[in-house]
Amino acid sequence: MEQIQKLEEIKSKEEFVIVEQPQVPEFSIRSQHTKNLSEGQSAHIEAILNPIGDSSMTVEWFFNSQPLRAGHRFRTIHSFGFVILEIIDLRIEDSGTYTCVATNDYGTSQISVNVECVETEKGERPHFTTQMQSLSGLREGQSAHFECLLSPVGDSTMKVEWYHNGQPLRPSSRIKLLSDFGYVVMDISYVHCEDSGEYVCVASNKYGSDTTRYSLQCSPSKKIIRDTILPESMEQITVLEGYAGYQTQTFVTTSETQAPKFLSQIQNVSNLIEGQSAHFEAQLIPVNDPELTVEWYLNGKPLIAGHRFRTFHDFGIVVLDILECDGDDSGVYECRATNRLGTDTTRATLECKCKFVLTIRFHLTNSY
Q1: What is the set of domains in the chain, with CATH numbers?
Q2: pTM of this prediction?
């Protein structure tokens, strides 16, 4: 028993001597799980820190050179010479450099470990699968229609912007911009020569961007008067301004007393292949009749609303766009305008051929 007691006394003295020896903090990495981690996983850093029994030792953690904020997802341990950092439910913003700094009365030491978290699902940058086609030889007063396809379709973060000759293009009563369900459209009604130039459509998300470029050329028309027709006399202008309210009221009243009339007709669309789009457009008066209703019919039945059918009626322009046509879309389309004084209609035929039928015909032709 005496020998055992002596051994215990010697051991305690040895441990006392080890603790009291001057020693700068020293790290040694034991294990780490920090590379190529996915969202929701856990990161783990474990190291051994000497000296073990130093009561003056302080341990601090830093993230990208800033003190690590406390939180339920971050667990730190310093006990019996072990230093541990665990990050649970990992997120992309947790990626970075984690540094552990140990300080005692004799000096400072530190270790740094990089944590990498990658997205579970990799996104797709925008890509125009088809391009806008340029138009030339237009005359003022005509209309212009541009369309193309864009992927990915279901990206809610996608942003689509238009530019004309380097300047941002905004929608107006003449210019309609549409980006929906992978379908990108620009319609210009009553084209002016100022609309000529280069157009750029830019689609972007957090993964990248893509562009489609196209041009429009419009020649001026002598029929359009560009100079002011108001008298130059300030007295006459003042008189006209005084009757502005009366003139506005008279204009609206005149429009309401006119039955609908299509100034131009929608045109037939033929030889359309499945997957392409169709565009119908016509001019309608009166322009400012609040009671005027415009309805579309297919083969005599009301056209069923859906994400593939886009209708537009404004500023005397009536438009129907059909996205990604199929064989069932073939038939007679009718646009019917009605107010309390009458009704007018315009009709056109759409012919869309299925790709499967075209393929069979091609093989049969080659077999002969």
Answers
A1: 2-118 (2.60.40.10), 123-226 (2.60.40.10), 256-368 (2.60.40.10)
A2: 0.45
